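Re: the multi-chain job from yesterday

Posting the exact lines I submitted so nobody has to dig through the queue logs.
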Amino acid sequence: MCAAMVAEAASAVDSAGMTASLPVVRVEALNHFYGRGESRSQVLFDNGIEIGAGQLVVMTGPSGAGKTTLLTLVGALRSIQEGRIEVLGHDLSKLGRSELVVTRRNVGFIFQLHNLFDALSAYENVMMAMQLRGGHPAEMRQRGTAILQRLGLGHRIDHKPRSLSGGERQRVAIARALVNRPHLVLADEPTAALDRDSAHKVVDLLKETTVEHGSTVVMVTHDHRIIEKADRLVHMVDGRIASDVVLHDQLRICEFLKSVDLFKTLTPIELTNVAEKVTKRQFIAGDVILRQGEEGEDFFLISDGSVEVMREGHDVARLGAGDFFGEAALITGEPRNATVVANDNLETYVLGKTEFRAAIEASRSFRDQLYRVYFLRH
Amino acid sequence: MTEGEVGLGRVSRPTRVWLAWRILTHDKARTTLAIAGVFMAILLIFVELGFFFAVPQGGMLFYDNLQFDLLMCSKQYEYQAQPGQFQRGQLDRVRSAPEVAQATALYFGSAKWHGGEDGKWPDIFVVGLDPRRPIFQADSINRELGLLERPDVVLVDSGTRPMFGPLTTGRVVKIGERSETIAGRYVLGTGFMGLGVILVSDQNFARLFPYRSLEQVNLGPIQLKPGVDPKRAAAELRKGLGPDTRIFTRNELEAHEVAYWTTRTSVGLIFGSGLIISFVVGIMVVYQTLATQVSRQLPQFATLKAIGYRDRALDGTVVTISLLIVIVGFVPALAAALGLYSVIRDETLLPVAMTWPRLAAVFVATLVMASISALLSLGSLRRADPAELF
Amino acid sequence: MATDTSLLHRFWRPAGFVPLAWRNLLANKPRLLRSSGGIGFAVLLMLMQLGFERAFFNASLEIIHRLDGDIFLQSASKYRFATRDPFRRSELDAARAVSGVASAWPFYADWFDVFWKNPFDGKAFLVRVFAFDPDHPVLQLPDVEGKLAELSDPDAVLVDRHARRFLGMDKGATQSELNGRKVRIVGSFSLGPDFESDGTVVMGDRTFAQLLSGPGGGLPGVEVGVIKLRPGSDPATVTRALRAGLSPEVAIFTKAQLLELERKFQADVSSAGPIFAMGTLVGFVVGMLIAYQIIYTDLTEQLPQFATMKAIGYRTGYLIRVVLEQGAFTALAGWIPAWFLSILLYRVVEEVALLPLRMTAEITLISLGLTLGMCLISAILAVRRVIAADPAEVF
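And the result, structure tokens for all chains:
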């Protein structure tokens, strides 16, 4: 997912009008009411949230909390009454009805019920979504077939819903939602009616979408299997966002790596690999992190705090957040050529020798970047 | 991808038709049922329309078989069987006009036929004419007119009812006060002139109706010289007409007769109301199917709306479903109507016939019916709220 | 299950303790409206066609009903009532002589020779003319009975105020012309037109004679001889005696036979009769088939509910009752408004076109019976599979 964000940033540089920091979904001061006059009741209270690309966001909360309402508003299925929602850079409140319809084409909807047309085969149901984008029939056929195969329905492509199991039908619906590679996927209990295997396939695919295509998935669910895989958990109670928690450090690592020069040019996959292998390590002021003459074991990336680099007792450099050290020994195989001491409370991300070497093997750009800095230093 | 590049979500007609077709063919039982209902409604419309036009057509039968461009008659002319009388002098005057090729006199009367089945004396309609002037469209009839030059001879229309007894050539029948011999039969059709029709020479007519003078003519068919425009000629000839005579062009005559049959008799009311009610029934039958389809698949339609199809696209699909149903139902209805027309012709002797304009009119009416039904069900389609899907 | 205490249910508890058929029907009001609406219009078509057809026949028989007699005489050669085929007056004298005959009076009529001039716009129209000796009235028409004295005067006539409006008989004019002769209008009666005559004029026999035979003309032949029997005499016996005493040129009829003669002619031979018959038949058959299709479609939509009921454990007999009731309710929901609407439409047609459209018990029962019948048959056939199926297989 961090890779995806970088990819988003990278492509953002290419495509006009979009900057890397543009969130996929931005909600501001959103209020919503049902009913009129005396029976008017407020269901959303001053909701605000920003969701970037490549995130798998799970929304939880008791029924009636407003999750679904928020989802329908973000999906441009309902008109905004008070507040502001930007989706994929478009201010929804400025869009007319038909423009809202057009915006929805960039959103993939997954409902609890599959709502497939009985009259159409699995492929044809998926095609209904593809036709909105237009395109070459052969290309559409290939794309539709591919996603159905990916979901394990390759042998069911021409079957009608009545000859598909419940799980298969839901997967067809998901294929329909994802076939156009939408930037935003909104899902409501997509796995509620699924058995363990089907649920597994679905969650994997959704996760993969966030990772490979940088899509954002916002999902309402109570399914624990999914909650475990989420990047972010938004809990709503009584129309308010009660909590909004980032689940894994990997996300933070991504966010951090994103801002680091060294990793900026890495491909998404490379970056994911790096991020996954990174561990967090903390030091307090005065800790000696590496000692000159020792064997090199780790590569360090400073996320918070600063260090003193000393050689033969003299300060050679001071490094802070975003800087890295410890690469020399890993590259040359020689012992450490300096001592690094923490100046204050330090938070670092650490990559072990093997992983570091693997990263160099795998990534040309990483290597180039690294050497550039290395040679600069030396 | 900017908005402009994204497909317009305007469901192209082929897609609409494809989706409508698939929805219909998927559930063959339901669709067949709907088509059966539509078939019957359209059949009804054909039948009512058939009667509606056949009655005036029956009333026009005799005229349709006469050769004339203009018709002179009394100002009191009501309709074919009640034409009134006018002076023969008017006809003679017109005969000498430069545009006129031929102007003949027709006499209408009704007499008792003393030779019906079971000793009954039914009324026979008598048409008196000049046998030397061939005025019928059918040459076969014109050829037989020569037979009427003999005295006390009649030609009988083959459509004369069985009630009149056998119509064999040579049969002698007392008609009115006179003894007449059947010289032959001709094929034309009695229309609404009566249950039986005979042709006689004008001389014979005078003998059959001694209280009538041949100076009092009922109808004066006028044939114009080739190339003469009937409307202009009529205008010309009307200038010198007496105050109680009038001239019709063929078209004016037809319009008059049709108007008589549809408004003065109850035909217009009876079959017109039948037509309207049948149309409404058709709308209800199609609407029933459409509403069912829409409500059964409301979530599916709502899903399409969610993923970005415009309302218009969905409306178009429903309209297409409606049109497909009626178009498929139209063909068997047409076939059945043709069959039914044949039965009606036999039973009622009305010239009920399928014409291309009628076919086209009913087809258009069918499409309108479908559209109205579709419009009615669009309301429930609107209720497909994608927000409710969550 | 909640008990439904609506008024109807106090009177009638359908299908056991749960008015399931009601529930099913009312649960989906739009569907009920669609189905009963479609059936309603099909029934409306039937009722209109049937109404016209009955009016067609009844109108032409109306005058016959009005003849005040027990036995009637007509020319044997007369092939229908509404044609002029008179017989000699002397036959009436012979009839009078037969024992059991209380009176034998002439009724004169003409249908196709007399033209009435609309006193307001001068247009001439063909009218029926009925005549009789004012001293011996034979027509049972109120308003005529009070004018008998006036009718003895020459050129006095009564007009039908319910004739078709374009005749101008309903506006209280006092004079007009018949075949060019001036006549005085001394009153009006109510009879109504039929499909061949737009209006009727009633007069005394002398006026009739003058009209048709010219001044100085003798009384014309008798169209119908109206015979009244002495109280207590046996019609069959008198008829036999009449047959013996009258020439073979005269036929003897009861009123029923007289009606039948004209009715049969209209139905089988006339130009219009078969048209009405055909039109009504087609309208009927197709209308009924459409009602069938509507119910069938309606119930087919509900098959899942019925299947569920069967699976839950409701007995087949109960299911059949529910289905029949639902079919019947839907049919009635369409038939009743159509029936009321057609009564209204009959009135409108009567006003506008002066056709005697009447809602009769006959029309009501025929249409109701057929509609219900079709719907019930359709209901059974629609759910036949569910009824016959094994509950487990139903899903």
